[in-house]
Amino acid sequence: MAPNANPPVLTVSQLGELVREGLRAFFGDSLWVEGQISNLHAAHSGHLYFDLVEPSDEPGRTPNAIFNVALWRGARIEVEHTLAEAGGLALANDLLIRIRARLEFYAPRGRLQLIMDRVDPGFTLGRLAVEREQLLRMLAEAGLLDRNASLPVPEPPLRVGLEIGRA
Q1: What is the 3-state secondary structure (H, E, C) of 88-137?
Q2: pTM above the 0.85 mark?
Q3: What secondary structure does DSSP assign to 47-94, as a single string?
Q4: For each of the chain's 167 residues, which pLDDT tens digit applies?
Q5: What are residue 66's DSSP bridge partners?
């Protein structure tokens, strides 16, 4: 393909609008994204901001990918309610999560971010169940799972004496 001899000349605003339109055309109004929450913080406005990261397979290494996420106050209430009803979950750092979001290009900062509006608690609960089963299997293999059951239970005291001091 030959290079374009006369590439278009755009203003920064025009380029930003073209990027926004292209993202909307390609991804539609929303998509589901899976990742791990990092750098979670709440603003005074009630909005939540965090990074959704794809951790490296090697501990301590830089994540494979990061996207900034904004969860507006109105959607935050619904998301937190959904998680709480699903099993007492809450948004927290290091939580593996699947979110529904809109991919947004914020032209004033030249930043691409996800605007979250929903969460799939089944994904997180499923991941937690898998991790729980792996932990139980590891404890059983190490002989630690039934260890407490093999210990004798001490008899409780039948009498308790109290000494009342004088003032």
Answers
A1: CCCCCCCCEEEEEEEEEEECCCCEEEEEEEEECHHHHHHHHHHHHHHHHH
A2: no
A3: -EEEEEEE--SSTTSPPSEEEEEEE-HHHHHHHHHHHHHTTS----TT
A4: 566 678 889 999 899 999 999 999 998 999 999 999 999 999 999 999 999 999 888 888 888 999 999 999 999 999 999 998 888 889 999 999 999 999 999 888 889 999 999 999 888 887 777 777 788 888 888 888 777 778 888 888 888 888 887 76
A5: 53
Tokens 């979670």 belong to which residue?
40
- Residue 109 half-sphere exposure toward CB, CA atoms < 13 A: 7
Residues 6+ apart with CB under 8 A from 161: none
Q: C-alpha angle with apex 65: 64 to 67, nearest 5 degrees?
A: 160
Beta bridge partners of 115: 70, 102
Angle between helices 121-141 and 73-85 (to 10 degrees): 40
Q: Which amino acid is at 133?
A: E
Alpha carbons 152 and 42: distance in angstroms, whole number: 48
CA 86 to chain centre: 15
Question: CA 32 to CA 35: how far, in whole Å?
Answer: 10
